[in-house]
Amino acid sequence: PTEDRVSGARDTIARLERRINQVDKSRKSRQDLETVRASLRQERARLVVQKDDLLSQLDGRLGEIANFWSERDQAQERLSNIASLLLTVPSQKRARSESSSPAQFTRYLQDRPIDFRFFPRLRFDPGSGT
């Protein structure tokens, strides 16, 4: 009987020690997870700031692109007007055919490089900010 109680007490002590070890491991694991969680929160905050900065930069670039499109459209309109004027002037070198049109002349000019000396506003100047 006494030996049984001693053996039972030893079993209980061993069981309680295992449970204490499990709780300690769980507590350590929880502390580790809290540390990782805090680190992830800091990283998320840093990424939010970076995202906001990138969105701001993108907004600026989209504004620049819109300005370039507007300038391009204006240049194409001017080019079309020039083509119309050139087609109305009699040519010394060739007779104008019946099929000539401002649109055809504009297409002809679009295949040619632009001489920026004559169209300075079309030139991209990275230092100008526009």
From TrEMBL:
<keyword id="KW-0175">Coiled coil</keyword>
<protein>
    <recommendedName>
        <fullName>Autophagy-related protein 16 domain-containing protein</fullName>
    </recommendedName>
</protein>
<feature type="coiled-coil region">
    <location>
        <begin position="6"/>
        <end position="57"/>
    </location>
</feature>
